[in-house]
Amino acid sequence: MTTVVTGAFASRNAIPSKLDGYIAEHEFDRPTLVVDVDRVEAQFHALKKGLGHADIHYAVKANPALEILARLVALGSHFDAASRGEIEFCLSQGARPDTISFGNTIKRPSDIVWAYGAGIRLFAADAEEELDKIAENAPGAQVYIRLIVEVSQADWPLTRKFGCDGAKALDLLDYAKEKGLEPIGFSFHVGSQTRRAEMWEPSLEALARTWHAAAARGHALTLLNIGGGFPAFYGEEIQAPTDYAAAVMALVHEKFGHVPRIMAEPGRGLVAEAGAIVTEALLVSRKSDRDTHRWVYLSIGRFSGLAETEGEAIRYQFLTARDADPMGPCILAGPTCDSADVLYEKRPMLLPLTLKAGDRVLIKNTGAYTSTYSSVCFNGFPPLQVVCI
Residue 267: what pLDDT? Predict the structure, then answer.
């Protein structure tokens, strides 16, 4: 049973009033992400003001809700898509093919064929074989080479799996030309949730050397894709979005000089703070009378949307109607029969000591990487429901 709360969670100035009002007025019989699309629009304008002439390519993987994509299309956003499915979502909401980048460096040949037929002309790669696939299935397409970011200060690093080093990247520019493609630039990603703009500087310093080496090698590059990294608020101080974006762009201009075309791929930074998850406590218990911490089990866990609690990397904020009561640490876990479904244990969460089963719990700033990480039906639990308002 879900507890219905009639008033706003005002004790911590919980969440934006539109979300707060909607959640307070509705019952939810399963964990539900509620997204304020107007808040997404406001964040888009704030980031765009700081990014200046850079094009925003929204990272669709953060949240592909069609209502969000439709609003961003209307605002003139571009899009970074990782799959045929994401491209189809964007096109279905009116996005033009020339505003979509197929940014995944690991693509099926048949998906490249389909994307090229749909009008997509910009592809990412970080290996010879990927360039072979693009050359065969999207002849003459524009490509950018993804550079590896060796050192990241992000809360959710994206090192190792994606990109190649500078020497390899220079060779791939030559190889792309040999294959009849048009290599136009580089991309990179400093890591998701890079909380301060100055954290970009070491990576930009190293990556700029490869950019300038390419110019010295005769490549007249026109595109720099600076990826994502734009943060959301999870309890630790971050810069306002306009100031953050402007500071990043100042560093880019300092390190790279004039670049004709710059792409930025905010995902989390665009949609995280526009959403809140409504869930409930299912059980509050202790493993023994000697236990110093309670265990609190929620109706949502790592397999139903909170995958970014892996390694306790992303520290979500939790709100309840009992937050004026005394608080105490607890180990927070999900509802499934998997022992890995523990959210926070190394650094326990503070929750009201009066919390009990059936109490509604809100999780702030969860508009990004929750609905897309939710499993289809692990242990029979339904996927995270999404409501856009």
Answer: 96
Does an H or E element contain 215, and which? Answer: helix 201-216
Tokens of 85: 């499915």
Averaged pLDDT for residues 49-60: 98
- In degrees and rounded to multiples of 5, residue 273 shows phi and psi of -75, -5
User: Tokens in use for 40?
Assistant: 């997404």
- Taking the C-alpha atoms of residue 199 and residue 246, their distance in angstroms, rounded to an integer, is 14
Q: Does 256 have pLDDT greater than 60? A: yes
CB atoms under 10 Å from CB of 375, counted, come to 17
In 251-299, at which residue ranges do the beta strands (DSSP E only) sit?
261-264, 275-285, 294-298
Predicted confidence band of residue 165 (pLDDT cuts 50, 70, 90) = very high
101 close to 124: Cβ distance less than 8 angstroms: yes
Closest CA to 339 of 381, 383, 372, 297: 297
DSSP 8-state class, residue 200:
G
Cα–Cα distance between 251 and 235 in angstroms, integer?
Answer: 26
Q: What are the pLDDT digits (tens) for 214-238?
A: 999 999 999 999 999 999 999 888 9
Query: Cα–Cα distance between 140 and 46 in angstroms, integer?
Result: 36
Between CA 81 and CA 11 the distance in angstroms is: 39
User: How large a percentage of the chain has pLDDT more than 90?
Assistant: 85
- What stretches of the chain adopt beta strand conformation (E)? 32-35, 55-59, 78-81, 100-102, 122-125, 142-146, 182-187, 223-225, 261-264, 275-285, 294-298, 318-320, 327-333, 342-352, 360-363, 385-388
Residues 6+ apart with CB under 8 A from 83: 104, 111
Q: Which domains does the chain have, with CATH numbers?
A: 10-35+272-388 (2.40.37.10), 37-271 (3.20.20.10)
Chain length of the chain: 389
Region class of 311: left (phi > 0), else alpha (psi between -120 and 50), else beta: left
| Overall pTM surpassing 0.85 (yes/no) | yes
3-state secondary structure of 37: helix
171 has pLDDT over 70: yes
